[in-house]
Write a structure and sequence with these properties.
single chain; about 35% helix; globular; alpha/beta
């Protein structure tokens, strides 16, 4: 099979535990790009937190793309948004009421990568981490402090793994019916519009490019990567992936600290 597009999760997939890209991964991605294979970074992170890695990999120009905010936004590398789905102001207010009722830490992100939270005597380290990655500051505002039509791309409940384990069931029970709820990494339980996920975004992008899903390789490690791994021609799980992702994958590559992405690209695409 001649693959035409490679979709790559970032954290714990392309990136090492130190948040760097190995030289081997860089070289195989360069080789794929030289073969006119599109390499699409596909992350729950926002624009600012993804674009720096795209530039490092020399993924540039109007004919290259990235998927951010868990699939809520698809844009080309010149910054033109070609797909976007938002959460309403009504949802935002209901979400804030819910987290305050249950005394949870949270943040929400708008489509410019700005981070907002409110009502906390102290900020959780993962809330601060989210804002740091977004690189647009952290705004302490209640819903009433923002415009009546203020919308967001995602809502995030922050906590240590044990804290998220404890409240995961009530979050799913409250929001599953109308939204997509998923753990995206250590410290992050995220809520998206119901049909927003990495799989839907890959479908939208490949449709616009005239690429068949069978011609796509996708790689990931966590639950939010499952929708794209299940629909593409070659779903690749990292050795460090959670068991559910390994079970759903067509192939398990090396872990993120041993250039698993590069090894899979060399095996299947070069």
């Amino acid at each position: 099979m001649a693959y035409k597009l490679i979709a790559l999760d970032l954290d714990d997939t392309l990136l090492t535990s130190k948040k760097t890209i190995s030289d081997y991964n860089k070289q195989t991605i360069k080789d794929a790009l030289n073969k006119d294979i599109k390499v699409v970074l596909c992350s729950g992170r926002t624009h600012n937190a993804v674009i720096k890695f795209a530039k490092e990999l020399d993924i540039t120009g109007e004919n290259q793309y990235m998927i951010t905010n868990g699939g809520a936004i698809i844009e080309n590398m010149d910054g033109k948004i070609i797909y976007q789905e938002m959460l309403s102001n009504t949802f935002y207010r209901n979400f804030v009421d819910f987290v305050k009722e249950h005394q949870l830490h949270y943040n929400v992100v708008d489509n410019h990568g700005n981070t907002y939270t409110s009502g906390e005597k102290w900020l959780h380290k993962y809330t601060i981490m989210q804002a740091f990655e977004n690189a647009n500051g952290l705004y302490l505002k209640d819903p009433d402090d923002l415009p009546a039509d203020f919308e967001i791309v995602k809502a995030i409940i922050n906590g240590d793994e044990s804290e998220l384990d404890d409240i995961s069931d009530i979050v799913h029970k409250r929001f599953d019916h109308d939204y997509f709820v998923v753990r995206t990494g250590v410290g992050f339980l995220e809520i998206f519009p119901q049909h927003v996920n990495k799989g839907t975004a890959i479908k939208e992008l490949t449709k616009s490019l005239g690429i068949d899903l069978s011609e796509v390789i996708a790689m990931g490690d966590r639950d939010n990567d499952l929708p794209m791994l299940k629909i593409v021609g070659k779903g690749v799980a990292m050795e460090n992936a959670v068991p559910e992702v390994k079970a759903a994958a067509d192939f398990v590559t090396s872990d993120n600290n041993h250039s698993g992405v590069g090894r899979a690209i060399e095996k299947f695409a070069l």
